[in-house]
Structures are given as structure tokens and as C-alpha cells.
Specification:
By secondary structure, the protein is an all-alpha fold. The chain is built from 9 helices and no strands. Pfam families: DUF2306 (PF10067).
Length: about 210
Amino acid sequence: MKKRKTLYGILAAVSILFILYTLADNYMIDPRAEGFLSHKTGLRRELNLPVWLNVMHLHVACACIAMAAGLLNFSNRIFEKSRKFHRINGYVYLVSVLLVVITSGYMAPYATGGKISSMGFNALNIIWLLITIMALVQIKKKRMIRHRNWMIRSYAFCFTNMSIHLITSLFHQGFGLIYVTSYTIGVYGSIVLLLLIPNFIIRTIGQSER
């Protein structure tokens, strides 16, 4: 139980800080995404900037809502006080993930790194959506532990952006690769990390429960 509380405390701290940073960066510091767009070169499709920015802002907002909703639903205290809230909040998470996936699908063709990165983003979207649907299926069948485990896997994908930028920074600033190549590595590297890390967390929780 103590280990679970520690994991939740770390998760809450990282999630809240990342939400605050993301909102500040995208809506106050760089609302026109000039820094991010400066890396997009050689696009095969013409970028309709006003539309792209609106979709991007919706994408960011829904991603932050999904991260916050998921964090709340991992709280045992909230679950014990109101299962109704847990259920409604779960649907908020589900709808937010769906909107993130849809908006990401729109932006994928304009991804830094071209078609290869675009394919990676589409793969991320499909995997995240399927995992989230699996979590919903499990709770409909009253399989609480399996539902929780699939939600852990789903929630990991809320950190896609963080994971991509950490890996990109490692290869670009650490190993000296060009930004576009580093970003593409970040996209595919994130798929691997976001599938592996949740299973480690699930095993850790399982061991603490035993």
C-alpha cells in the first residue's frame, strides 16, 4: 500500500507540473507555436496556419484534460468517496483521449520528419485508442484489476509529448544528431517506452499487493 501511495505521489507531481508547463507554453509563452513550427521544413502539404493552430490548441487542451481526469481516477480516496464521480470522470477521460487522437490524426501529415514521423504518430494514436477501449471493455465486464491495468497502460500515453521531447533532446543535444532525425527517433522510441514502462509499474503494484 505504501509503495502504491509513493507511486501515486510521484505521478501526481509529474502530471500537475507537466499540465501547468504545457498550458503556459502553448497559451501564454508561445501561443502561435513559432518555436515548434520552426523545425517543420520541406512539408509536402501546405500548412493552413489558422486551422492548424486551432486544432493544435484543442489537441493540447484535451490532452491536459485527459491527464487530469486519469490522475483523479487513480486516486483510491476519490474512488472510495464517490464511485459515480469515478465513472463520469472515466468517460471524460475516454472522450478526451478520442479528441486527442482525432486532432493528432489531423496534425500527423504535418509532423516534423515527414511521412516516417507521420506513420509513427498514426501508430501511437491507434495503439492508445485500442488500449483505452480495452480498459472500457474490462470494466464493463466487472474485471476491476484488469481494468486498472489497462488504464495504467492507457494513461502512459498521456506522456507521449513529454517522452518524444526527452528522447529528441537526448539525441539532438546529447548525441549531436540533426533535429529532424532526433525527432523521428523520439516518436518511435516513445512507442517502445510507453508500452514497456506501464508493465513494469503493473508488476510493481502487483508485488506490493501480494
